[in-house]
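Subject: Interface between my chains keeps coming out wrong

I've been trying for a while to get a sensible model of this assembly. When I model each chain on its own everything looks fine, but I need the whole thing in one frame so I can look at the contacts. Pasting all components below, labels as-is. Any help appreciated, I'm running out of ideas.
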Amino acid sequence: MYIIIAGGGKVGYSLARELQGGDNELLVIERDGERAAELGERLEGAALRGDACEASVLEGAGVRRADLVAAVTGDDEDNLVVCEIARHHGVARVLARVNDPRNALLFGKRGIETTVSATDAILAQIEQELPVVAVVPVMHLHEGLELVEVRLPETSPAVGRTPRELLLPPESLVALIVDSGGVPRIPAPDTTLTVGDALVVVTRAESRAMLGEALIGGAHGFDT
Amino acid sequence: MAGFRSILAPVAPGDASLDAAALGAALARQAGGALTLLYVIEVDRRLPVTADMELEGRRGEELLRRARARAEAAGGGVTIEDEMLQARAAGPAIVEAAAAREADAIVLGVAASLLPGRFAVGRTAEHVLGHAPCAVWIARAPLERAAPAAEPAARP
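Reply #2:
Try treating it as a single job with all components included. I did that and got this:
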């Protein structure tokens, strides 16, 4: 697999280091000359000095034959441009780092469904750690879908029911149930939900509030 | 010099690398060793590194043939092998080949600078000098063989 990483900062370098080897061919594009030279030393020459926002640089890097382009600079606008150019050249998979979670929607509107936001991830972790009831986003999926986690409180209208009896928002699905002891279960027709169960649900981002009402019992949500 | 039994001489267009091949053969003869001539095809990133590079391959064969002729003339019966490989950049490929063959020395031909009194090596020689695990000999072409010096560009 040929992977191009736009941005040779800490994220880009760490990503490259993890992906290098095996059957992967890898290239990091870095704008800063000194940093690009340093990356070249560390990554056995798999670094190119240049601005990945320029179509000519990406073309020279062989974007047309890339299997994946990951735009992970610290600038959301740059990442958006890199993804747009990559898609224009027919790259099957593009992935963008979103530094400001509010920009994730913009990426989605431009057809770039796979985004990774460190802020979102940290917020999700905080939500998981704090004793609050909420719909916690775990992962963005394709086509506006996401994976969320909901822990059922005592007041949950879902307690005592089976997943099939729940009135979930459209295009929502309980994918996994982790009981209060930490044991994961695939939902079965006769599975009865209990207090403390953590439900991993596939849903649409815009349905979080509805999902919160169905599983928690109020207009809870995690507005990003 | 008795230790230089395995010598690697990268081959590139230009007389300098022919001189390097001859020097490598002479060194190998003194030590009773062997010489490997190496031509690296640098493959543009727009292509897979394993892409069919027929034209470059033919050019490499011709350059290796010339280098072998010079080496045989200077080596007096020394064992000479040649190898051609494809890589993204010649420098790392040369260093890797030297390590794989446990070469005692790399003999690298470099062109003379176009600016008299100055000496600057290209990225390949710079990489080899900085990374080779073995000794590196630089064979620079005589100045009179270099292209006529251009007027120095005005400093910005």
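Reply #3:
Confirming on my end. Residues 219-224 of chain A have pLDDT under 50 and may be disordered.
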